[in-house]
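Predict both folds.
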Amino acid sequence: MKKLSIEECQRDLLALEAADQLTDNVEREIARFKSMGTKNLLGQATKMLISGNLSLEALDLPANFFEQLEHLVHLNAVTRRKYRECVQTNLDELSLVQDGEVVDE
């Protein structure tokens, strides 16, 4: 069984908190973008094409929106990997107990 330090656990909890905040930010931006309506989006897209300003800001999205998405995907991948390791460890320990072996703490 893998032994974790308090510092590792605290770091993981901070990473989960950062992922939660990032998820909230991304969800808020997506909801705002979806609520704009097709007519407004087409109007803004037309203005972008005419002005040559092809940027996320022209669509009222933050400039780092895609960076936020990439960071969120990375954090989620790390979290899933770590959780998968925990579940596998638990499964291995339960299998040992079910087989009649004693698990040392």
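Second protein follows, with its predicted structure tokens after the sequence.
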Amino acid sequence: MSDDIEIDTDDLERRMDGAMGALRHEFGTLRTGRASATMVEPVMVDAYGAMTPINQVGTINVPEPRMVTINVWDKGLVSKVEKAIRESGLGINPQLNGTIIMLPIPELNEERRRELTKVAAQYAENARVAIRNVRRDGMDQIKKAKGDGMSEDDQKFWHDEVQAMTDRHIALVDKALEEKQAEIMQV
């Protein structure tokens, strides 16, 4: 292997890991019938004239497996936070208790569980596409290096390295999807 031409596999690995991190975050926003603070993260509140993430207007807690509470810091925003949750499409009916908004998480019916598994599958497919795009960038680097005089043996080595990295990350996506779908379908 020539010492002067190398492919930046650390960058490719970091970008593939980034796609996995994004997938985990998206999976965290899916409702599974169990309470999770991440499920309300995408909710934006009209606070002080700007759309603000819900976690910047109050403290989000999970006191029980089927309850999320949001302790709103500014009393004037309680009604706006409640409205944002109702309009978010989470399918949760907030209950007020002073400045604390309680979100009881209802059981999911079979049809909604199946819909959520399809959404999870779509998130996983988006992660696979992102990983394949990083793979393509790695292969483009190898082609460019070929033009710069990389030997065929080195090309084969780097091609196999990038492909192995891609296969490993795709397997991680598949495993994460399988676990999330099992979690969603669990009654």
